[in-house]
Structures are given as structure tokens and as C-alpha cells.
Amino acid sequence: MLPTRAKYKQADLPIRPFLFLLVLAHFTIAALSQAPDANPYFARKNTFSFLGAYSNDSSHIWLGVAESRKLVDIGAGYSRRLFVNRIVNWQYSFEILPVALNSDPVLTTNTTETIVYNNGNTTQTITQVTQAPTGKSCDAPDDMTATFVYPTQTDTVVWKNTCSRRWVMGEAISPVGFQWNFMPRKKLQAIVVGHGGCMHSAQPIPTSDAGSFNFTFDIGAGFEMYRSKNRSIRAEYRYHHISNGGTAKENPGIDNGVFQVTYSVGR
To answer: Which CATH number fits domain 46-105+167-266: 3.40.50.720, 3.65.10.10, 2.40.160.20, 3.20.20.70?
Structure first.
């Protein structure tokens, strides 16, 4: 029989591996708790956005010829991540605009015709007002007066022209789109976007003979700043085009340079 002290030494042997494993587990857990996030990208899988966009003017940038049109867009968007690596985050993008306002310059002509008959006892005045959005920027012609003398009467016609602006309410949807975010491991990322869709307005735009239904597309670039991996703010500049594709009597088209700000959340 072993001495008592030997018994204690034999009894201690199984405890040592257990303590070693316990210490190893402790340092492993500590190391894992300090390890970086398993996902190194600022690239959400599903993103929901709220956006506002504005353009103060239009011109012949590429396809459109209607000038001096303003745009105001308010809406929401959704994007789905398709592919991501250390260089690019490629996303499908969808936008809907329940508020799509278009502003057209309008020329108003006030025509007053005064008829004086030769007997001198009868005078007749006729007044007519016409309003129409102009294809180009509104530059009101000078007021004019003309007198026409006939055998039985004399007509005096006065034309007074003024420029104003109308806002036309519409709605738009862009079901086909993409967004590319570059260097997705960084909080500040350069982006490229593009969309295609259609819009409907309460009146024909940009002229009276154009259509209420139009096709739209845009392409642009900007930056997206991630406040966290779930939230970000995006600022971008887009070339935005509206036209009816020849489905109406006139198709002047509208080219706008649009500034857009977007707030996004997701995971």
C-alpha cells in the first residue's frame, strides 16, 4: 500500500489537465471577445431608404430640349445586395416617388380688342386670356398695340404678355435599377447609381401637346457615409431624363441635373 502522501499525488494528477483546459478556455474566450466583427464590410443585405431630390433648372444636357423645368421628388427606396467583395458592393435598387413635381414656365397673353363703329354710338370690347407652357424658357414678348381701320369700324387690339410658372403633380416608379458601392470596408464609399421607370402626371408635361405618361431614367454618382453598419446617409448628383417616347403629339423631353439626399437603414 502506498503511503498517504503518494495517494494525494496520484489524486492530483487528473486535476492538472482540467485546470489547463480551464485556463485555455478562459484565454480563448477572452481572445474571441476582442476579435473584430466577422463581417468586415459596411454592406447591408437589405436596405430601406427615404429620399428627397431637387433640380432648379433643365437644359439640353443630352436628349431633352425643354428648358427651365424644375423637379421636386420625395419618396422611398429598397435595395438588395447581390455581390460584395473588398472592391465593390453590387446592389439591385428600386425607387418609388409618390410625390414627383414638375414645374413648367407658362406664357400668359391677355388680348383686349376694342371695336368702335363709325356711327360713334356703339363700342364693343372683347377680352381673351390664353395660357400655355413654353417649350423653351419663358421670355415674354413686349406688349403690342395694333389698329385696324375698316369701312364701318375701327378695331384696336392690345396684347399684354406675362410669364409665370405652374407646378404639375405626378407619381413615379423605377423598378429597374442598380447601385455600386466601392471600397465597402470603409465608412465613406464612392457610389454609382442608375434607374429606369415611368411616371404619370396630372397634366401633360412639359408642353400642352406632350403626354401625361412619360418614361424616365437616371444615372449618377456620389458618396455614402455609414454612421454604423445599419445606418447611412447618401448624397449624389444624377442626370435625369423624362420623355414620352413618341407616344404623344410632341416629345421635347426634359433633361435635369438632380441633387438627391437619401437616408438608409437596414441589415
So the answer is: 2.40.160.20
Closest CA to 236 of 77, 112, 101: 77
User: For residue 5, is pLDDT > 90?
Assistant: no
**Radius of gyration of the chain, Cα coordinates, nearest whole angstrom:** 35
- Please tell me which residue, 110 or 138, carries the higher pLDDT value: 110
What is the DSSP code string of 132-194?
A: EE-SS---PPPPEEEEEE-SSEEEEEEEEEEEEEEEE-EEEEEEEEEEEEESTTSSEEEEEEE
3-class secondary structure, 257: strand
The pTM assigned to this predicted structure is 0.77
Grid cell of 18 as nine digits: 482540467
Helix H or strand E segment including 72: strand 70-84
Residue type, 217: F
Average model confidence (pLDDT) for the chain?
Answer: 87
Predicted confidence (pLDDT) per residue in 97-134, tens digit: 999 999 999 988 899 988 888 876 667 788 888 777 88
Q: Which three cell numbers stand for residue 245?
A: 417616347
Cα–Cα dist 232/208, whole Å: 41
DSSP 117-130: ETTSS-EEEEEEEE
Looking at residue 16, its amino acid is: R
